């Protein structure tokens, strides 16, 4: 069996790609903005705030939780979500290493 595509890249490259993929949907950006705006954990009102169907919101929350940008805690029959600040800062640092690559060389190739 051949090497999978992700095995050709470093763990850092794969992790940056996973984080970027998690941010690559406007619904996920809206969810993150909403959670940041209320500055606390949110239970249930994400569907009303974002305006998408509950299964759709659940899928986006799952993606954000999988990469660790949010945390979810079960409270009774619902799950409350909040920002995972440790991973948020990690993502910011990882993305800045990519976004700052242009500052290392000021010469243009074209």
Break the fold down into its secondary structure elements and pairings.
Elements: H1 11-23, H2 26-38, E1 42-43, H3 46-50, H4 54-66, E2 70-75, E3 78-83, H5 85-99
Antiparallel strand pairs: 1-3, 2-3
Query: What is the molecular shape?
Result: elongated
Integer average pLDDT: 88
Weakly predicted, low-confidence segments: none
Radius of gyration in whole Å, from Cα? 17 Å
Helicity, as a percent range: 40-55%
- Encode the helix/strand succession as letters: HHEHHEEH
Distance between the termini: 41 Å
Structure description:
With 110 residues, the chain is α+β, with helices and mostly antiparallel strands. Helices cover 54% and strands 13% of the residues. The protein is built from five helices and three strands, in the order H-H-E-H-H-E-E-H. It has helices at residues 11-23, 26-38, 46-50, 54-66, 85-99, and strands spanning 42-43, 70-75, 78-83. The chain has a three-stranded antiparallel sheet. A hairpin with a 2-residue loop joins strand 2 (70-75) and strand 3. The termini are far apart.
Task: Give a short overview.
This protein is an alpha+beta fold and 110 residues long. The protein has 5 helices and 3 strands.
Features:
110 residues; 3-stranded antiparallel sheet; single chain; 3 strands; alpha+beta
């Amino acid at each position: 069996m051949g090497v999978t595509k992700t095995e050709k890249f470093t763990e850092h490259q794969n992790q940056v790609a996973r984080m970027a993929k998690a941010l690559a949907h406007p619904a996920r950006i809206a969810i993150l903005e909403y959670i940041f705006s209320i500055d606390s954990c949110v239970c249930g009102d994400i569907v009303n705030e974002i305006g998408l169907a509950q299964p759709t919101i659940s899928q986006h929350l799952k993606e954000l939780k999988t990469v660790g940008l949010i945390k979810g805690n079960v409270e009774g029959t619902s799950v409350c979500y909040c920002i995972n600040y440790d991973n948020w800062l990690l993502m910011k640092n990882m993305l800045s290493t990519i976004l700052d690559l242009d500052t290392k060389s000021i010469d243009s190739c074209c």
